[in-house]
Amino acid sequence: MGETLFIRLGSQAENRVHWLIKTDGQEEIIASGELPNAGELTQLTEKSSARNVIAFVPASDIAIKRLKVPGSSQRAIRLAAPYMLEEELAQDVEQLFFAFSDIKNDEQGHNCFLAALERKQLTLWQQWLTDAGIFCKVIIPDALALPTVPNSSTAVMLGEQVLIRLDEWQVMAFEANAWPIVAPHFTVPRVLSEGEKVVVSSAESNNNDTEQKSAILAYSALSEIPEEITVEYLPQELPLAILANNHSMKFNLLQGEFQVKEKRSAASKNWLWVAGIACLALVLNFTLKGVELYQLSEQQSAIENDIISQYKAAFPNTKRVRIATVKSQLRQKLAEVGNSGEVAGFLPLLIKLEPALASVPEIKPQTLKFDGKRQEVRMQTIAKDYQYFEKLKVALEKAGLTVNLGAQNNQGDQISGSFSISDKSSKGRS
């Protein structure tokens, strides 16, 4: 189960900083404390490294408004809303940042719920956290983290400020000594001047349709409270724990230009490195396999070209040779010599015959015929001298062949002669 570090920042760097750590989904507090100022946030750096971080900021620095804005689309409503507040806000609209809630409407017909604050203030809060090395992607106005109770307001005193939540989108945040100013306006909320250091959110000065509250439910002691205001004290809890236990992440000031990108954990980064190296290895492996495949393809092409060349050399009259049909073409050529049975006997005999012929190059074969029935090759040859016929006979016999040398005839400057050659071992098997 995860843990969350909650930090409540002040308006100024010198203001005290409250912090608390609790287990998600449980109310048990793991640790809590205070820092003297924002410069000491580095004390929370290590505590934030393995936890989610949610920051609360003073609602007194933020105008929380609810409006009735003409328009049919949320985009149009949100574009128009800031300019409807120009007369109410002390700063120029261009200097302010507007964050919008996803609340659609309420019982009074309000259709736009927003929080307005100075850009430089929101930037300052983010900068304090960044300088301390604390990654935070959620910032919530503190008063909006109080619980809501029908027909009652809820309150807590956090540091020197009193936080009151009137309903879902109406809050007050003021210094404790401002109770005399707040009291006359509590049951009928209105906007007070910023000089009074009181923020009454989302209530127009001429709009009295807000339901009056019968009492304030306080989760901590409230100092300097006037007698005319009814307060019902609940069991006291740590003020920041009240915010931590009741906050809703449905609203976040960090929107649009201030939205924080998700930070990858160290483990995720390590896995990304591993995945990157694995991908690189896979790419290198495919590259090497591709190179090897290309080389094999080149070798295959060279062998196929050599086979085609030798086939054409053996059969020069062949016009077209395809490597896929060379085998069948060779069978066809062999079939022309004899039937399939004859071919089976002819090839082994031809293999033994070839070395002997090569050893007597002076004899040139003229015709070659195979007698399948007698398993015998009849060869007509020519040479320039009678001795070469005898020499070839000896070579053939050394190869294990039976040789019958026929008559030799003188034909001018050449002598022709015939041979009948058979295989002893074949005859023995037959």
What does this structure look like?
The chain folds into three domains: 3-263, Nucleotidyltransferase, domain 5 (2-Layer Sandwich); 264-337; 338-429, Gyrase A, domain 2. It has ten helices and 18 strands. The chain has a six-stranded mixed beta sheet with strand order 12-11-10-9-13-14, covered by helices on one side. Strands 3-2-1-4-8 form a five-stranded mixed beta sheet, with helices on one face. It has a four-stranded antiparallel beta sheet with strand order 15-16-18-17. It has 430 residues and is an alpha+beta fold. A hairpin with a 5-residue loop joins strand 2 (17-23) and strand 3. It has helices at residues 45-48, 74-84, 119-131, 179-182, 239-246, 266-314, 326-337, 340-359, 387-398, 424-429; strands at 3-8, 17-23, 29-35, 52-57, 63-67, 96-100, 112-118, 138-141, 153-158, 161-167, 170-175, 198-200, 216-218, 231-233, 364-371, 376-383, 401-411, 414-423.
